[in-house]
């Protein structure tokens, strides 16, 4: 099957697309989308890659699952479509940005504006059945997205990986720490944030500091 993904990624992920697990995964996803309501919409499944070409990637944020409510997921982790109320984790992300870099709270929760600047907003699982969190886990997506992280680590240098919460922190084993920058903290979900594991991590100013030291353009968060 020809996967609809930004051409810049294809040369690096071609071997994944040809593997049996990936063909089985795509067949599963096709069947799910035929028989059930699933998110995000088909054309947006690989949106994280389409908005952030391989060569342009500077920062990687790892999420777990797409939002499973109507009109929320747009293919980027933590992001929702324009005009959709901000989910709790996204509210806490924006609150941290407000205090960290002294900016105003944004109206839109659509993070395409980050992705277009080189932030890969990668969910470990790229699809989900409506109202059933985790319903597409352990079907092959994690194998694929782990391969993406490994390939970025191998082929690029000086990426900034933001690993929020226990699930994302486990991905650190896939990253060459001698070549890249890894920032970790608690998850922005209310459960973690209210315990003091999220607010005050300064990840957004720290990321921009790293990028500027490398002579790269900072992210307009």
From TrEMBL:
Keywords: Cytoplasm, DNA damage, DNA repair, Glycosidase, Hydrolase
Catalytic EC class: hydrolase
Primary role: Excises uracil residues from the DNA which can arise as a result of misincorporation of dUMP residues by DNA polymerase or due to deamination of cytosine.
Any single Pfam family the record assigns to this protein: UDG
Descriptive protein name: Uracil-DNA glycosylase
SMART domains named among the record's database cross-references: UDG (SM00986), UreE_C (SM00987)
InterPro entries: UDG_fam1, Ura-DNA_Glyclase_AS, Uracil-DNA_glycosylase-like, Uracil-DNA_glycosylase-like_sf
Recorded GO CC terms: cytoplasm
Catalyzed reaction equations: Hydrolyzes single-stranded DNA or mismatched double-stranded DNA and polynucleotides, releasing free uracil
Species, as recorded: Costertonia aggregata
Active-site residues, Swiss-Prot/TrEMBL: 65
Domain Uracil-DNA glycosylase-like: start-end pairs: 50-211
PROSITE patterns assigned: U_DNA_GLYCOSYLASE (PS00130)
Gene (UniProt): ung
UniProt-recorded Gene Ontology molecular function terms: uracil DNA N-glycosylase activity
